[in-house]
Structures are given as structure tokens and as C-alpha cells.
Amino acid sequence: MLLFAGSHWILSHPLRKSAIKTLGQSGFMATYSVVAVGALALVLIAHDRAPDGPMLWDSYAALPWLLASILSFVATALLLASFSRNPALAPRNMNGLSTALPQGVFRVTRHPMMFAIALWGVSHIIVAPSWRSLLLNGGFAVMAVGGARTQDAKFQTLYDKEWRIWSRRSPFWPNLTKLGGLGWAWGGALIVWGLVTALHWLLAGIPAGPWRFFEG
Fold first, then answer.
1. How far apart are the C-alpha atoms of 104 and 81, rounded to whole Å?
2. Of 90, 92, 94, 151, which residue is 20 to 30 A from 132 by alpha carbon distance?
3. Which helix (H) or strand (E) holds 24?
4. Please, are residues 77 and 146 in contact by the beta-carbon 8 Å criterion?
């Protein structure tokens, strides 16, 4: 996880400019992708080979299952909504961002994709509270929140006023009272979440989400 997070941060920030200058934009993106996929593959292999160990609590009890289901469902809605009109996604155009009023998911947080990953990680710690799960899923959660912070700093440097004003209008930490404004993303999340949890049951043999009701 340190290799995955560290290589991601180094290529995204300290080495980004020099790497793009040397390799070109397309060459940099190709290198970045290869390093990220390779490091992630090592993480998954290490997780698979690590001993599962004792669970820190009964993760199959009703309360952990309910909490994890809610968090993963919200994470799915945030993720889907993050693909629409997200100024943080490439190709990005910050012109006029300082005059825009946040709508939909950006009234919840200006980093919906990052917090979707963080919530996904937390939900999996709740239902798989072993040490290897804490390293894997906790690592993803910390990396996502830290990545959102470093993304703020980078955009502040690059776009100054545009991002600074946008940051005042769209919160960093999720404002849970605005979740109702996600609109269509809730319907999409219901479909995607249902399919993903079904695959979880089919491929891993562990009923997740609503499919627990159909177990046995």
C-alpha cells in the first residue's frame, strides 16, 4: 500500500512536470497507468497471500451489515454523480468556475469521487475487520482523503482565484444534509450497487448488500 500510494503521489505531484516534459503528455499518462496498475496488482497479491487473521468483531451481525450497506450505497451514488460536470476531472476547464454555483453532488462535497472511495474503504473495514483488511481498505480510505487535500493544493496553485472561490462554495467534507440533491444518481446507484453486490455473492460466495436476505 505504501508503494501504491507513494508512487501515485510522486507521479501526480513532485515528478509530474519533469515527467511530462521528458515523456510528453501521452507518454506520461502511459507510464503513470503502468506504474499504478503494477503497484495495485502487487497490493492485491499481497492481500490474497496475507493471513486473514481473527476478526476484531462479529462483522456478520445485523448492525455492521446495515452500516456497511448504507455506506457502500452512498459511495456508489457519489461515484456516479462525480462523472457529471466535475471540474476536477480531465479534460478540465476552470474558466468561469468562480462564478458557478454548486449543483447536485457538489453541494455535498467538491471531491465526490475521492469520498466515494473513502466510504467504500470504510464500509469494507466494517464487514471485514481483520488486520489485512485494515491495511488494504484503510489504506485506500486514507489515500483518497489525502489525495483530495493534495488535489486542492495543486488546483489552488494552478488556478488560484477560480478554485479558491469554488472551494468556499463547495465543501470539502461531505455535507450529509445535501445528499437528497443527488437526484438521478440514486436510481443509478440502486442498479449498480445491486449488480456489484450480486457479483460479490456469485464470485466470492459472500452475500453482500440486499442479497443477504436471500441467503440459504
1. 8
2. 151
3. helix 16-49
4. no
Which cell goes with 132? 489485512
The answer to whether residues 138 and 119 touch, using CB atoms and an 8 Å cutoff, is: no
What is the DSSP code string of 34-60? Answer: HHHHHHHHHHHHHHHHS-----SS-TT
Which CB contacts under 8 angstroms, 24+ apart, belong to 61-69?
A: 64/126, 64/127, 65/127, 65/212, 67/123, 67/126, 68/123, 68/124, 68/126, 68/127, 69/123, 69/208, 69/209, 69/210
Question: What pLDDT score was predicted for residue 51?
Answer: 87
DSSP state of 100: P
Tally of CB atoms within 10 A around 102: 17
Question: Mean pLDDT in runs of 10 for the chain (216 residues)?
Answer: 91 86 90 94 92 84 91 96 86 80 94 96 93 92 93 90 93 95 94 92 84 75
Counted residue by residue, the chain has a size of 216
Cis status, amide bond into 91, omega within 30 of 0:
yes
Q: Which whole-number Å values give the CA distances from 72 to 89, 123, 137, 159, in the listed order?
A: 22, 6, 13, 33
